[in-house]
Design goal:
alpha+beta; three-stranded antiparallel sheet; 3 helices; elongated
């Protein structure tokens, strides 16, 4: 059985192995339908797989510093 991740926990960095993702970034991703989510009552919840998939699609390469 999978564990549900709440947006507040993800924003506070309480989910081990996942970076902190601000609430405003999460809202924007949901609004643009970039991240899969579900609603339990009035609460938004994610599965770990959904967050990891979204991160993989949206990770950008680091830009090298100009010398």
């Amino acid at each position: 059985m999978s564990e549900w991740i709440y947006p507040k926990d993800l924003a506070d960095g309480k989910v081990e192995g996942l970076p902190e993702i601000s609430l405003s970034t999460q809202v924007e991703a949901r609004r643009k339908r970039q991240i899969t989510y579900s609603k339990a009552g009035r609460n938004v919840v994610y599965k770990r797989e959904w967050v990891e998939t979204w991160l993989e699609k949206n990770i950008r390469k680091a830009q090298p510093k100009a010398e």
